[in-house]
Design goal:
Elements: E1 19-29, E2 35-40, E3 43-45, E4 49-53, H1 60-67, E5 75-80, E6 83-85, H2 89-92, E7 96-99, H3 111-121, H4 130-140, H5 156-167, E8 174-178, H6 186-201, E9 205-210, H7 213-219, E10 222-227, E11 230-236, H8 237-242, E12 247-251, H9 255-264, E13 268-273, E14 276-280, H10 286-295, E15 302-306, H11 310-318
Parallel strand pairs: 4-9, 4-10, 7-8, 8-9
Antiparallel strand pairs: 1-2, 1-3, 1-5, 5-6, 10-11, 12-14, 12-15, 13-14
Helix pairs in contact: 3-4, 4-5, 5-6
Bound molecules: adenosine-5'-triphosphate.
């Protein structure tokens, strides 16, 4: 997939701490009474690739549809780029590319002709530059060789890439993508992930929803974890990884004495459960803990150092497993 330099759109809000998307108390209660999105406070930093991660049914699509003004929130407010929504939608939305349940493409038309049609009906697009922009968008997603093929002959990955090409008919500062790799085979998934990384590298902020932790780990700089409509964690991925600090687990028939020893060593987050005592190791080498237990005469039947992975952290936050397939 080629990624020619694309004119970088001017950033209207730049610098440290700038946010491309913010929501405050964003809520959607459907007529059925179901609260699909519950007082969501998102903060998507400008320039980030933000993974909006949650199991199926957790409210991701509803949130994205509210962000784009396709669903009316029950409560709360949100901003895209430098504008308030929906008040500033006319000024802001042309700078936002969105992929939500795929645009309606005509199966009997080629990819190229589908893009021509979409560009022609966009009243804000300049017809004089149409051919050039369509060519660049197709090239950007690696579909130039298949541009003249009919849409119905496209693989799922090609269809998704054409959807992305449609969002790239003009420079975008922000891309909002709902499960962009859903239903794709491994090759299509790789293609779309590479493209997302390319787009981010050229300066766009990307907000993408996914139920795949591996996707977040591969391409995102930030993550927001949503569970039953509520945001349970948000921040730079590196920071969340920081919460995967190693712990010691000690098995002993004198747990109270083991607790006293690890406290003496100033270990934190000490937990005792029956014969099992665990604590965050911090920077202390684990052999110091072993030596201290021996010194204190604590009988040790089992000792191990455990490093939880990101999935365990998220399962701890949501009480639910994530689909970890890549
Ligand atoms: N129009 C609607 N009317 C009533 N309930 C709805 C409507 N749309 C979505 N819901 C419900 O709201 C909840 C959140 O759905 P949503 O599609 O936003 O979740 P999601 O995280 O995107 O899940 P998925 O990945 O499966 O699409 C679900 O329980 C869903 O059944």
């Amino acid at each position: 997939m080629t990624a020619p330099a694309v004119e970088r759109p001017p950033m209207t809000e730049a610098g440290e701490g700038a946010l491309a998307v913010t929501t405050a108390g964003l809520t959607k209660q459907f007529r059925s009474g179901q609260v699909a999105v519950d007082r969501l406070d998102l903060a998507v930093p400008t320039g980030s690739v933000y993974g909006f991660l949650g199991p199926n049914g957790s409210g991701k699509t509803t949130t994205i549809r509210m962000l784009l003004g396709l669903v009316r929130p029950t409560a709360g407010s949100h901003r895209l780029l430098d504008g308030r929504m929906p008040e500033d939608a006319a000024a802001v939305l042309p700078r936002v590319g969105a992929l939500v349940e795929g645009p309606a493409f005509y199966p009997h038309l080629s990819g190229l002709d589908n893009l021509r049609r979409l560009d022609a009906v966009d009243g804000t697009a300049d017809p004089a530059t149409s051919a050039e922009r369509i060519g660049a968008a197709l090239d950007r997603v690696g579909l130039t060789p298949a541009g003249k093929k009919r849409y119905r002959a496209y693989s799922l990955g090609m269809r998704q890439r054409l959807g992305l090409a449609a969002t790239l008919l003009r420079p975008r500062e922000l891309l909002i993508l709902d499960e962009p790799t859903n239903g794709l085979d491994p090759q299509g998934t790789r293609e779309v992930r590479t493209l997302v990384a390319d787009l981010a590298a050229s300066g766009a902020t990307v907000l993408l929803s996914t139920h795949l932790l591996a996707e977040v780990e591969q391409i995102c700089t930030h993550v927001g974890v949503v569970h039953r409509g509520r945001l349970v964690a948000q921040g730079p991925l590196a920071e969340l990884r920081g919460s995967t600090a190693p712990r010691v687990e000690i098995e002993t028939d004198r747990p109270a004495d083991a607790v006293a020893t690890v406290r003496r060593l100033a270990l934190t987050d000490v937990l005792a459960d029956g014969r099992r005592v665990s604590a965050a190791l911090g920077d202390l080498p684990s052999d110091r803990v072993v030596a201290a237990l021996v010194y204190d005469g604590v009988p040790v039947q089992g000792f191990r150092v455990v490093v939880p992975d990101l999935e365990e952290v998220f399962v701890g936050l949501t009480g639910e497993g994530f689909d970890v397939s890549a």
